Amino acid sequence: MSRFGLLLVLTLLVVGCGQKPKSNPPPPPLQDSGADMAPGAMRKGEEKGEGRGHPHRLMAGTWRAVRDHVTVSVEAMPKLDDDDDFFMVAVYVQNRSPNAAVQFTNWKDPGQVTLKDATGKRYPLVPISALVEKSLRETKTESAPEYGAGPVLPDQARMTFLKFDRAVQSAEYLDLDLDGAPVGFQEPILFRIPKEVLGARTPAQEKAVKDELAKVQGKWRLVSIERDGKRPQPPAGVEAFVTVKGDQWTLTVTNEKGRSECTIRMDPATNPGTFDLIRTIKLENGEPFKIVEKGIYKLEGGTLTVCANQGVERYDPTRPRPTSFQSGGGNSVRVLQRVDK
């Protein structure tokens, strides 16, 4: 591997650029499955969305041919830019014969999708740029859903993205309606709201987060990376370092040009603690695109171990946050040792 190639691998592994929207395992089958459902019908039941507390409903009836065991998962996503709301919708079908596939129609027609805030104001669905569409279509991992309209099979989910012409001004409630089936967000979509208006943590919780971030300030040497049981070895004389200053995480590689920067968010409220690495890249046409790497961490003396959900080649926002320090399933485990504070 060339040194340039190694730099690219290290950069993507440590910063997390390269995958696609969140391929959680499908929720359990609905208990009241049975006869075919009419368009617009919705089954009872809610589940919590991973990590952020966004409930999403289990629905059916939003495609041309809908039968039982169809699940729709709606997740609030990082914004494509600073002006619009952005959602990922994944469609699963369970216990179905390949000969009875659901046909997903993508919710692209006028009137199929509406979004409104607590005041009742409605916001229009707007198109996603051709470059972003192209990137999403080309993004493919073995377990990831297919992008866009088409058949939904037991072993192949489908997904799409919805973008709305509105800017989040405060911690507010949103109502999303898909073909007459409402998706009620029972809590504000905190992940996408400017931090200065969040007000999401108590003073004690906020102090715990700041104290945890203070513990990782300084310079760290990347001593190992493991992905799917493999540990790539750098050429002689090449080392990777991470410097944490405030909420900025900066990767540099010796004997190589370039550096990569992102914002780090840490939360010690769970065991293990969680972290997000966030950075914005520019697409070919200059549009900003936000990449969020989700992971868990543990700090033991001068050793920081992190396990993250992003791979090397493509960004995949469907990937769930890891729950253990295992490198399988596309997760990567990195070990860093403190150099100085």
TrEMBL record:
Residues 19-56, 313-341 are annotated as: Disordered. InterPro entries: CHP03067_Planctomycetes (IPR017504). Residues 43-53 have a biased composition (Basic and acidic residues). This is TIGR03067 domain-containing protein. It comes from Gemmata obscuriglobus. The lineage of its organism: Bacteria, Pseudomonadati, Planctomycetota, Planctomycetia, Gemmatales.
